[in-house]
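INTERNAL TRANSFER SHEET
From: sequence group
To: structure group
Subject: FAD-dependent thymidylate synthase

Please process the attached sequence and return the structure record in the designated field. Keep the field labels unchanged so the import script can parse them.
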Amino acid sequence: MKIVEPKYEILTDISQDGIKELQQIERVARVCYKSEDKITPDGESAKKLVGFLVKQGHEAMLEHSQLSVLFTCDRGVANELVRHRIASFAQESTRYCNYSKEKFGGELTFIWPSYIRGEQYCELNDSEVTIKSSFLEAMTYAEKDYKLMIANGMRPEQARCVLPLCLKTEIVVTANYREWRNIFKLRTPVAAHPQMRELMCPLLMELQKKIPVVFDDIYTYWPADDQTRKGSMVK
Ligand SMILES: Cc1cc2nc3c(=O)[nH]c(=O)nc-3n(C[C@H](O)[C@H](O)[C@H](O)COP(=O)(O)OP(=O)(O)OC[C@H]3O[C@@H](n4cnc5c(N)ncnc54)[C@H](O)[C@@H]3O)c2cc1C
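Return from structure group:
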């Protein structure tokens, strides 16, 4: 049994300072206003125009650039991601992946929930020790039963019924910028699930650094330091 931290990887190449991405939107949007003559090669006109589009709510223009992100997360978070109907997905399949095979090290991989403390972050009190061991025990049983069912002739798509929501999955989400804005607005506020926030908040902040203007108006609070984050999320 392996337990790993969630993570994301931006699969789409983003140009230096994100200018090419903005220029793509600018090229398209200027058709509406017939203002192609205002395009400047340094990208300043693109920044200005995209800022204007966002402010005006003319977000349809943002549909002309897209981004793919690979998330390594648990099945619970993945279930929430696939609710975003405008996005496209590719997800690791529990029907076709046989985790008892050597390819997977013959073991299951789970995601460590951000709200369960590990002693690598701090000393645990009694109830935290109990929570942690309950979690580990449940994962141990899930793995044992899954492998036992496979060993007794079940296919992965059948044995998966004993797998828990914190099973690690990989899922690629491809969406245009308009849809990513919608995703960030829904998935970064404190009302969103903590494990969703722990992926979406850093992703949003990284994109705000890499692509100017497009996501700047979406505010998120997220402490940069990982240890602070882990500690602060536990009640
Ligand atoms: C905090 C939180 C709690 C949640 N709790 C639950 C829950 O308890 N149960 C539950 O079932 N879901 C829950 N959800 C999921 C939620 O109901 C949505 O399915 C999910 O957030 C996707 O939102 P969306 O429809 O805006 O996104 P998308 O499906 O990506 O759609 C993007 C946008 O396109 C437009 N759009 C898409 N489809 C249509 C359509 N058919 N008609 C009109 N406009 C459309 C809308 O403007 C929409 O905002 C929760 C979500 C959040 C953020």
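Handover comment: The chain has eight helices and six strands. The longest strand covers residues 66-74.
Transfer complete.
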